[in-house]
Design a protein that fits this description.
heterodimer, A: alpha/beta, globular, B: alpha/beta, nine-stranded mixed sheet, three-stranded mixed sheet, about 15% helix
Chain lengths: ~240, ~210
Amino acid sequence: MRKIYPDAGAALEGLLFDGMTICAGGFGLCGIPERLIDAIQASGVKDLTIASNNAGIDNEGLGKLLRSRQVGKMISSYVGENKEFERQYLAKELEVEFCPQGTLAERCRAGGAGIPGFYTKTGVGTIVAEGKEHKEFDGETFILERGIRADLSIVKAWKADESGNLVFRKTARNFNQTMATAGKICVAEVEEIVPTGSLNPDCIHLPSIYAKRIILGAPYDKKIEFRMTREREAA
Amino acid sequence: MPWDRNQMAARAARELRDGYYVNLGIGIPTLVANNIPDGMEVTLQSENGMLGIGPFPYEDEIDPDLINAGKQTISELPSTSYFSSSDSFAMIRGGHIDLTVLGAMEVAENGDIANWMIPGKMIKGMGGAMDLVAGVKKIIVVMEHVSKNGDPKFIPECTLPLTGKNVVDMIVTDLCVFHRPDHDSPFKLIEMAPGVTAEEVAAKTTARYES
């Protein structure tokens, strides 16, 4: 089975429909599947539910799909730094389900692992717990959170081999590894595609069973949200 | 004289112990990293998937794939490891992190904390704060003693939506330090900034505490 597709539009063909749920990797603008986001925008598909830790910033990342009004609902932990998001949210044009970051990661991990729900202490006693089942374990209270299963996962990796094994780079791994497992099908974009056999099997981050379609997305113009540096001490 | 931001961070840093794994929140808590005592080995965790955070990079080392949870560029150390968000929060929620230092808008006398949302204003989300307060062994809050309007922030009961219930172990403000040995005990005033009096602390605090 050939997994390498010529471009993002071709890789998404037949997978998009109005009202679908998408799990997207990335943290802030780090490790976001930008070519696939562009192709989803170009497709015009709408009324999307997107599970992603953040919602991009104005006109970057998922912010593009917000601007083009293709998103009906976001499931996210943090959505700051995005004016258009704020406008749509306050105007009630966009539904938002705030989900603690660890709960979001675990909901997608669980969904991808066939686990429909799990108990966690996170959020007990807060508005996050409202309406959820509470249960005592060993004298402590936990709430039931549901696994997330999406129609599609879109992720960004560093390298893929031709069989679909993926390797991520530094903190650009973040949600990508988890989100890749939560979709019925995962499409990955990568910076480099190498021949099968050239990655060390002991160092694969995401085994080939997950990414079914892969595109080479390079060259990337990676954006930095907060550029911090230190000075070299004088010699 | 009240403590400045760096002195508050330095006071929180005195709670570090050799071998600790620590998660630092955004703002004053980040400054704790500059105040790790010499010779002490403390490993910083970033919830976006990194253990072993180095200092800000030199200009020629900047890497867009290497950021902290505040989305700032950082550098790596020889001991650094990277992992997924779900592994990262397994560490946090599984009780493997020894200490977290967080900012807060309000702390209540029973250890409740509110630091993520002001109803009626734009809500940005809780990020990883609810997971941290639910899962980390020791929770230190570093905050100004009173709000910009002069209102006490250590109060009988939180008025804002909670981040966690009965979770705070220590509060470091610009005026003083409150501590409790366990989550059934009341907070006790254990230390004051130089020149700050117990009367001043009492006048600016509505929470009940032992002195």
